[in-house]
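Give me the fold.
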Amino acid sequence: MEELVVIEYRCPQNHKCPSVAICPVGALKQEGFDAPTVDNDLCIKCGKCVSFCPMRALQLQ
């Protein structure tokens, strides 16, 4: 089964993650400027955050 993963080395971790706001179910969270974390129990695998992330740090695998 697919799940959303954060590829941390691709995430610059120096800003508020724009993909967090795009998630329709609130499955992405971010503390400070750290890489976002995923609640895969909430994630509906819609792919919006994957398409939105300019660094390709979010992937459905």
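The chain has one domain: 4-60.
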